[in-house]
Amino acid sequence: MKKIAGLFVTLLLVFGLLAGCVSQQGAGGNSNSSKDGKDEAGGGDGKIKIAVVPKLIGIPYFNASEKGAIQAGKDLGVEVIYTGPTEADAAQQVKVIEDLISQDVDVIAVAPNDAAALSPVLQKAKDKGIIVMDWDTPADQSLVELSVHQIDDEAYGRHIAKSLVEQMGTEEGEIAILTGGLAAANLNSWIDAAKKELEENYPGIKLVTDKIATDEKQQVAYQKTLDLIKSYPNLKGIMAFSTPAPLGAAQAIQEKGLQDKIAVVGTALPKDSAPFLEDGSLDVAILWEPDKLGYLTVALAKDLVDGKKPENGQNIDGVGEVEVWEDGKTVIMGPPTDFTKDNAKDYDF
Who contacts 120 (Cβ-Cβ below 8 Å, separation ≥6)? Predict the structure, then answer.
């Protein structure tokens, strides 16, 4: 009986020790975990996970932005997930963001095709503890921690309008406006500023029709420009917003040999623009360096995870000094660049 009693006591002690170990491990795991069980520094491997979502993937502008974002990830030691829809479609973007939420990333930085359509899914991300930013195009400002802009929208739109009038060589005549998607907030801001510049300072300029959507596709812009040429034989100028649109417009002008009759300016990349700038079918491409925009977005996202907010005049390695507005949320990368036949070949994007 004594042996049995001794064995029973021993077993109780063993089970007690095991229970204590399990309890301590559980407590330790809970106290060290953060959002949804991830390490405080980011993913399970300790890396911060930053998702950058463009309007769409596969066009040169967003390819250049991707290059900058990925480079920033390498330089700053964070994991960058650059992913987006294959078309400029808000519903597809929502699906992409839903997937990123399930991956439990630390930051989602998005360039919305339609800001209102994305608000519910961005609210869901925010409720999950994910930092929400926008870049390239504004989202619902009540949902974002930072709004990263390439340039000052007002100044940019006005500059494009003044450039068109300069290239037309006259302050009178009919013009048209091509855009990417009708709901793109950044494009609409630029167009509104351009129209304001014309109304205030160039009353002789007449807009023949409302802005024309081209769905972020060069071929659509090309066809729409051919339609404009046919419908408005006195057309003297075209402003094209979204990087594929100026190329499509220039392609149509080139095909019809109207370089000396219709001026075209727009928001295009220098490398793509070079063949059209060379023969004058595109007069000026006005943009910024999208690889730097991608880099800046990731750098600011990492700082947010680290608890740092940007400051006005702050120098960002690989980008330069940025402007931060009084709201503490809006970040301006810098002024635009005019790409012409003389300087376009100096840029590798």
Answer: none
CB 288 within 8 A of CB 150: yes
The tokens describing 133, both together, are 């930013």
C-beta neighbour count of 94 within 10 angstroms: 20
Q: Which CATH architecture has domain 153-287?
A: 3-Layer(aba) Sandwich (3.40)
List pLDDT tens digits, range 275-285: 999 999 999 99
Measured from the Cβ of residue 298, the count of other Cβ atoms closer than 10 Å reads 28
Q: What is the average pLDDT across 52-57?
A: 98
Give dist(CA 340, CA 110) in Å, integer: 30
Residue with tokens 């972020």: 216
CA 126 to CA 298: how far, in whole Å? 18
Note the pLDDT tens digit of each residue in 24-43: 333 233 222 234 444 444 44
Cα–Cα dist 171/180, whole Å: 26
Report the distance separating Cα 173 and Cα 22, nearest Å.
81
Identical fold, 49-150+290-334 and 153-287: yes
Quick one: which of 75, 73, 85 has its CA closest to 114? 85
3-state secondary structure of 240: strand
Residue ranges per domain, the chain?
A: 49-150+290-334, 153-287
The whole-angstrom separation of Cα 276 and Cα 263 is 12
Distance CA 134, CA 148 (A): 6
| Residue 3 reports pLDDT greater than 90 | no
Contact between 139 and 90 (Cβ < 8 Å): no
Using the structure block, give the residue that is written with the tokens 């793109």. Answer: 184
Q: Supply the pLDDT for residue 45.
A: 64
Which superfamily does 49-150+290-334 belong to?
Response regulator (3.40.50.2300)
Backbone angles phi, psi at 136, to 5 degrees: 70, -45
Which residues are within 8 A (CB) of 166 and not within 5 positions of it... i.e. 6 or more apart?
A: none
What whole-number distance in Å separates Cα of residue 28 and Cα of residue 36? 15
Q: How far apart are the first and last CA of the chain?
A: 88
- Distance, in Å, from the CA atom of 342 to the CA atom of 157, rounded to the nearest integer, reads 23
128/146 Cα distance (integer angstroms): 18
